[in-house]
Design goal:
This protein has helices at residues 2-21, 32-42, 52-72, 74-83, 108-124, 141-161, 165-179, 228-236, 254-263, 349-375, and strands spanning 181-189, 194-201, 205-206, 219-226, 275-284, 300-307, 313-318, 333-337. The protein is an alpha+beta fold. It has 2 domains: 52-86 and 216-330, no CATH class; 88-181 and 342-376, no CATH class. The strands form 2 sheets. The chain has a 5-stranded antiparallel sheet with strand order 3-4-5-6-7. Strands 2-1-8 form a 3-stranded antiparallel sheet. α5 (108-124) runs antiparallel to α10 (349-375). The longest helix has 27 residues, at 349-375.
């Protein structure tokens, strides 16, 4: 009996010890003001509280990386620039092989681009809106009604509230078959208080040469042209750091010069000063730029905005949700491809039928020049012969 009593006492002691070990004191829940303050700090501009030397080191490293990425796709830009001549949008007077020779361009490429744009626009933006809803799983009246409400609301937003959606999509469908790649940037605009979907040409979105997809790309640079007034608005609103920037006249690339040539636009005598802003969606560890030795911490997504002219860091924002434990990057860009290419950029009609269009143009010009040469008499002038308009040479040969 004594042994049984001891066993009972030991069980009671263990039970009491176990009860004491699992006793947990629960504190008071966070107030709404504390939650709002922590959220405000999380989404704040981190550059405001960082050391100036750290920001300079960060800016220099990221701008160098951007320039390397841009140089790595130089051949792509040159091929695209030369291919734009095949559209035949600009008329030039030829002087070779003789003055007034044929300068016509075969409309093969321009016709193919126009047909694609017309067909794609009709399919992607119909009159009743581009959004369609599909119920997954078992059908019920509530699900079907909910799908109809979602479809009607999204079509209303795209076709009525988002004024830029239709013209930007129309412009994208013209660039897409030419360059092979075009991009849309979709985000919520705090100023307009609505979602925004803007077209970005391929030359304004720079990625590393080894990138194969936007989802896995660790550095995406969006090149934005801004006026001084736009910069001041964002600085006054607190979105950018209130630092003094030096306006510079940006150097125009060959592609930008070609665009102006096709449009028939030439710069005026006055210098147009603009700011070239680099909005970099990047995975990085900010501590690596504060200390000399890089750490082995996992890189997390940030949006870092830099003025390329002055090298000033304007803003640093976290690019993931506060509740997301995995710290997954928020995706802003959508990549449209005409034909899947061998790398990051897609193939366009310039790559597919550019050679055929160039050959057709050359053959057409040769036929016209041959007809001109066979129909127009030519000869030479002797010093002793008097003829009218003797100061005018015979053409074409």
């Amino acid at each position: 009996m004594a042994e049984i009593e001891k066993v009972k006492d030991s069980i009671e002691e263990n039970k009491n010890d176990t009860e004491q070990e699992v006793t947990v004191e629960i504190g008071e829940p966070a107030s709404p003001e504390q939650v709002a303050e922590s959220s405000e700090n999380f989404y704040a501009n981190l550059a405001e509280d960082m050391d100036e030397r750290t920001l300079q080191r960060l800016s220099k490293q990221l701008v160098d990386d951007y320039k390397k990425d841009k140089i790595s796709r130089k051949d792509w830009e040159q091929g695209y620039t030369k291919g734009l001549d095949l559209l035949g949008f600009k008329y030039t007077e030829m002087t070779r092989p003789f003055k007034g020779s044929a300068s016509v361009t075969h409309p093969l490429l321009a016709e193919a681009v126009t047909q694609f744009q017309a067909q794609a626009y009709k399919e992607l933006i119909p009159s009743d809106g581009p959004v369609r809803a599909k119920v997954i799983g078992a059908l019920s009246k509530d699900k079907v009604d909910q799908a109809d409400r979602v479809k009607e609301y999204m079509n209303y937003m795209l076709m009525n509230e988002m004024e830029e959606y239709t013209p930007e999509m129309d412009q994208l469908l013209f660039y897409l078959p030419l360059a092979g790649s075009a991009f849309k940037k979709c985000y919520y605009d705090e100023v307009m208080q609505r979602a925004v979907s803007k077209f970005i040409p391929a030359e304004d979105l720079v990625v590393p040469y080894y990138a194969t997809d936007l989802m896995d790309c660790e550095r995406i640079t969006h090149v934005i042209k801004m006026s001084e007034n736009e910069i001041l608005k964002k600085q006054k609103a607190g979105f950018y750091r209130d630092v003094e920037l030096k306006p510079v006249a940006p150097e125009k690339s060959d592609l930008q010069k070609k665009y102006q040539e096709l449009e028939g636009v030439t710069p005026s005598g006055d210098k147009q000063y603009t700011y070239q802003i680099l909005e970099m969606h990047i995975d990085c560890n900010l501590d690596d730029f504060e200390y000399d030795q890089p750490s082995r911490e996992v890189k997390v997504p940030y949006i870092i905005t830099i003025d390329e002219g002055s090298g000033e860091v304007l803003s640093i924002y976290r690019n993931f949700d506060m509740e997301d434990q995995l710290k997954r990057r928020k995706e802003y860009f959508v990549h449209f491809k005409f034909l899947p290419g061998l790398g990051f950029y897609g193939f366009g009609l310039i790559h597919m039928i550019g050679g055929l269009s160039r050959t057709a143009t050359q053959a057409l010009r040769q036929l016209l020049d041959a007809g001109t040469l066979s129909n127009l008499p030519a000869g030479f002038k002797s010093r002793g012969i008097r003829i009218r308009d003797d100061d005018q040479p015979f053409q074409p040969c």
